[in-house]
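Running this now, will post back.
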Amino acid sequence: MAIGQRLEIRQGQALVMTPQLQQAIKLLQLSNLELQSYVEDELERNPLLEREAPAGGREDERDAAPVAAESQVERLDQALEHGVAAETALDNGFENVYADESRADAAERGDPDAGGGAVDWSRAGAGGGFDGEAADLEALLTREKTLRDHLGDQVQTAFADPVQKMIAGWLVDLVDDAGYIPADLGQAAEKLGVADAEIEAVLAKMQTFEPSGVCARSLAECLAIQLKEKDRYDPAMQAVIANLEMLARRDLVGLMRVSGCDAEDLAGMIAEIRALNPKPGLAYATGEDSPAIVPDVFVRETPQGGWAVELNADTLPRVLVNNRYAARLTTGPKGKEAKAYVTECLMSANWLVKSLDQRARTILKVATEIVRQQDAFFAHGVRHLRPLILKNVAEAISMHESTVSRVTSNKYISSPRGVFELKYFFTSAIQSSEGGDAHSAESVRHRIRDLIDQERPHEVLSDDRIVEILKEGGIDIARRTVAKYREAMRIPSSVERRRQKLAAA
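Update: finished.
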């Protein structure tokens, strides 16, 4: 058999992930905050991108970007005419946005802008700001005090010894937002160079600070501190505090045994414990404001009885390509490297603008279909939430399920019934016992919670009884499913609920 060579042509299909496609997919799954950060980076990196001026703005504001671009064009033209690379003209590299060169290295090579003492102090304001603006003293004075600020003020007046004040300051830094200190201080004595007894003495004094119960190392210690201040920390109360796990289980018989009290006295002590604050530090600001959820889509009811869906314009980045700037850069004799750089920037800018527009259209399309399929929820509430999966929406709008999944991630919709994540509307189906339409799992969970909330102390519903009630309402569900939903909502069993309701009665 002879061995030879031959040429074959085969045809096949393959999905090629171009950089532009990767960018579009990445933008699609970003939240509005992440998108803003991404666009800011692109504005810094690409000189052909600029912010779109708001409609109705002043003429000088609308013309500010083109004027700046023209000056940048002139600088770049001059540099290119003298044979300087584009990287040097733009004061930056093509691949590295931020230079790694330190000020000391720049000063060593003789860079006049290195800042080695050439600070323009004439621009310093009277209040000490380098931008010429005085410090906002009113904002400083009216700033809400944090827990650490409050404890720090008390440390200054409670301790005169510098060593103790240093230890107290170190402990203040360990206090969390709830007011607790870690139970295990580790090698605190070794780190601070003091004895363990001295740290304990400082901590004991700090536990007398306001708010009451602060600087405790455990829940039991926090409650004990508050009870001591009220002069209610007797041996019986001490036994109850030492057995909080029994109180959590509602083991009243065991608590009466360990405390030596009857049912009436124990009920009184439990009422006192309930009146205490288990997280005293939360009464003060944490110093870290949680970012509010900004909806991506708004839903409002129309006069005709339908639902109007619109994008939140405040979350949409407004960028455009400075074609005038690009035309100046691409005309005239330029170096090969400079032309390649300008071409790359122009393509990247155009693709970004196109991807942002496509992202907005896709979000609106998906949100509109979700509202169409869940219109009963917006009209009547969670009981009317229909079963919905990604495939249903994808087939309706002729998109892939993965695209719908990316769109619904970290995106929120604002409606008359509140703000919901788009993924909230996707729930599994529970079949009807009467052969009708299936029920949404979320609506079933809502019904289970309603049934439990309406319980009476002597008529607590078991999981089996909840199954019977739901089947009477046309919902075919198993007992283990009810138990799973109940545990997911952190609702205790019927036995625990009966103990809680009887104790609260």
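The radius of gyration is 33 Å. More later if anyone needs it.
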